[in-house]
C-alpha cells in the first residue's frame, strides 16, 4: 500500500518538504516494500533544477496509467526542470534502490541535457552491464565529494557530475550531439572576454554578425537560457573562484567580474550562491584545501 506524506518543511532530502535550495544535492533512496520511504515521490510541477537518477536494485515505476514505465538496474533517468515527478517502487518488485543527483547545471552543459529517448520530459538511457559499476561509483563519489566539507567540495562535485553527464552522452548510441552554431560559441567567448564591461546585446550581435533578436533567439535555443542570465552565471562562477583563490578585497572581486557597486554584487551573489561573498570566502578558508584521498581512490577505481 502506498501512502503520501504531507510536505512539511524538513531537513531530510528523502522526505517531502525538503527545500532543495542548492546547486547540487546527491543521495541514495533505498525503498523497501512497506518501509517509511515506500511512497510515490509526487511533485506535480517538478523542481527548479534537473535530477539524474540511477537504479541500482529492484524496480521503479515512473508515472501512472498509460504513460507508466518501469526502470531497472542500469537505467539512468534524467528529469528536466519543471517536469512532473511521479515515481516510486514498482508494485511488481519488493524494493527500489536508486541513487540521484539534483543539480542546477553550468550553462554550457545544456546540449548534454537533451536525451534522445525522452518521454514527458524524462530522458532514459539503459546502460550495458559492464558500465554499471563505473556509473554507480561516480554517483557515490559525487555525493562523498560534495559532503566532504573541503574547500572545493562543490566545484569538484560539479566537475565529477560533468564527467558523469558526458559519459552518459558518450555511451548513448543514439546521441547525435547537436553541433553548436559557431556564432554562439563566438558570442560566449566575447562575453567571457568582456565580463567586467557594460555589455549591450547589440554590441555582441554586431560582433557575431547577427541581428539582436536573432542572436537572442539562437542563444536561448542553443544554450537553454538567455544571454544576460548566462553572463551572470559566468560572473558568479568567476567571483567564487577569485574569492577562493585570491586575497583581493570583496569590492575588487566584484569590480573584476563587472559589479561596480559592492552592495549590488553582494546581493546578486547571495541570491545565486545562498551566502554573502565574505561568508563564502570564510567557509572556503576554514575548509581543508586538500582533495580527500578516498575521492581520488574511488575515482581511479572507476576508470
Ligand atoms: C528524494 C527522492 C529522489 C529524488 C530526490 C530529489 O526524496 O527519493 O528520487 O527525487 O528526492
Give an account of the 3D structure:
- Keywords: Activator, Cytoplasm, DNA-binding, Transcription, Transcription regulation.
- InterPro entries: AraC-bd (IPR003313), AraC_XylS_family_regulators (IPR050204), Homeodomain-like_sf (IPR009057), HTH-like (IPR037923), HTH_AraC (IPR018060), HTH_AraC-typ_CS (IPR018062), Tscrpt_reg_AraC-type_HTH (IPR020449).
- The strands form two sheets. The protein has a six-stranded antiparallel β-sheet with strand order 1-8-3-6-10-9, with helices on one face. Strands 2-7-4-5 form a four-stranded antiparallel β-sheet, with no helix packed on it.
- The longest helix has 19 residues, at 153-171.
- It is globular.
- The protein is built from ten helices and ten strands.
- It has three domains: 2-176, Jelly Rolls (Sandwich); 180-224, Orthogonal Bundle (Arc Repressor Mutant, subunit A); 235-303, Arc Repressor Mutant, subunit A (Orthogonal Bundle).
- It has 303 residues and is α+β, with helices and mostly antiparallel strands.
- Bound molecules: beta-D-fucopyranose (FCB).
How many β-strands, per DSSP?
10
The H/E string reads: EEEEEEEEEEHHHHHHHHHH
Measured distance between first and last alpha carbons: 41 Å
Instruction: Determine the fraction of residues in helical runs and give it as a percent range.
Output: 40-55%
CATH fold assignment of the largest domain: Jelly Rolls
| Morphology call | globular
Q: Architecture of the largest domain in CATH?
A: Sandwich
Strand content: 15-25%
Organism: Erwinia aeris
Domain HTH araC/xylS-type: 185-283
Protein name: Arabinose operon regulatory protein
Keywords: Activator, Cytoplasm, DNA-binding, Transcription, Transcription regulation
Amino acid at each position: 500500500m502506498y501512502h503520501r506524506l504531507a510536505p512539511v518543511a524538513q531537513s531530510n532530502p528523502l522526505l517531502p518538504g525538503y527545500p532543495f535550495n542548492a546547486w547540487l544535492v546527491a543521495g541514495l533512496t533505498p525503498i523497501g516494500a512497506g518501509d517509511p520511504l515506500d511512497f510515490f515521490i509526487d511533485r506535480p510541477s517538478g523542481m527548479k533544477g534537473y535530477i539524474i537518477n540511477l537504479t541500482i536494485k529492484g524496480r521503479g515505476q515512473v508515472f501512472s496509467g498509460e504513460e507508466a514505465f518501469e526502470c531497472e538496474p542500469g537505467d539512468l533517468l534524467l528529469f528536466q526542470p519543471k517536469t512532473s515527478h511521479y515515481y516510486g517502487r514498482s508494485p511488481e518488485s519488493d524494493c527500489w534502490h536508486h541513487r540521484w543527483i539534483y543539480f542546477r547545471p553550468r550553462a554550457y552543459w545544456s546540449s548534454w541535457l537533451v536525451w534522445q529517448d525522452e518521454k514527458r520530459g524524462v530522458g532514459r538511457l539503459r546502460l550495458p552491464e559492464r558500465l554499471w559499476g563505473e556509473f554507480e561509483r561516480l554517483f557515490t563519489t559525487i555525493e562523498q565529494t560534495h559532503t566532504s566539507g573541503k574547500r572545493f567540495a562543490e566545484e569538484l562535485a560539479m566537475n565529477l557530475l560533468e564527467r558523469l553527464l558526458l559519459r552518459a552522452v558518450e555511451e548513448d548510441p543514439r546521441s547525435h550531439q547537436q553541433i553548436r552554431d559557431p556564432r554562439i560559441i563566438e558570442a560566449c567567448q566575447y562575453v567571457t572576454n568582456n565580463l567586467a564591461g557594460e555589455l549591450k546585446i547589440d554590441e555582441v550581435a554586431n560582433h557575431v554578425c547577427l541581428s539582436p533578436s536573432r542572436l537572442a533567439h539562437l542563444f536561448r535555443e542553443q544554450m537553454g537560457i538567455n544571454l544576460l542570465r548566462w553572463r551572470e552565471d559566468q560572473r558568479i562562477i568567476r567571483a567564487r573562484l577569485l574569492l577562493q583563490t585570491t586575497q583581493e578585497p570583496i569590492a575588487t572581486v566584484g569590480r573584476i567580474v563587472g559589479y561596480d557597486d559592492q552592495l549590488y554584487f553582494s546581493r546578486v551573489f547571495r541570491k545565486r550562491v545562498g551566502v554573502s561573498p565574505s561568508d563564502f570566502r570564510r567557509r572556503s578558508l576554514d575548509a581543508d584545501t586538500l582533495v580527500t584521498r578516498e575521492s581520488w581512490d574511488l575515482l581511479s577505481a572507476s576508470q
